[in-house]
Amino acid sequence: MAQGRGRGGVWRTRLRGDVSTKDGVLRLVEQITEKEQRVDVLINNAAIQRPWKDPISNHLDPDSIERLVWEGVDDDDWEKTHSVNVNGVYFMTAGLVPLLRKSEDPSVIVISSIAAIANQRPVSTLTYGVSKAAA
């Protein structure tokens, strides 16, 4: 856990951990609870974009793109991406509700991506874009 004063003298804490599982988040929440009496701002910024397994070489051909979208997504990539990018937001926010309630003016910020709303070409951001839109 890294702590210190950031710009403007604001106290901040940065953590590393596994937000893809409830157990991983519980360990993070324990670390925070040991050091902090309240949380004023939670920034959900954890995200992954898995490498694309691109079976199609012509990203300009609409038929190739459609095949890429439906045939190029690996189930494991889909699950892992959503575990971090969607479940992580839920687990962290729910886990910190007791400390957020102790703040006079708590805020929860979820960092999304332009990939959540924009059609990306090549379609290498399908699982990432869908997960950021869901969060």
TrEMBL record:
<comment type="similarity">
    <text>Belongs to the short-chain dehydrogenases/reductases (SDR) family.</text>
</comment>
<dbReference type="GO" id="GO:0016491">
    <property type="term" value="F:oxidoreductase activity"/>
</dbReference>
<dbReference type="Pfam" id="PF00106">
    <property type="entry name" value="adh_short"/>
</dbReference>
<keyword id="KW-0560">Oxidoreductase</keyword>
<protein>
    <submittedName>
        <fullName>Uncharacterized protein</fullName>
    </submittedName>
</protein>
<dbReference type="InterPro" id="IPR002347">
    <property type="entry name" value="SDR_fam"/>
</dbReference>
<keyword id="KW-0521">NADP</keyword>
<dbReference type="InterPro" id="IPR052178">
    <property type="entry name" value="Sec_Metab_Biosynth_SDR"/>
</dbReference>
<dbReference type="InterPro" id="IPR036291">
    <property type="entry name" value="NAD(P)-bd_dom_sf"/>
</dbReference>
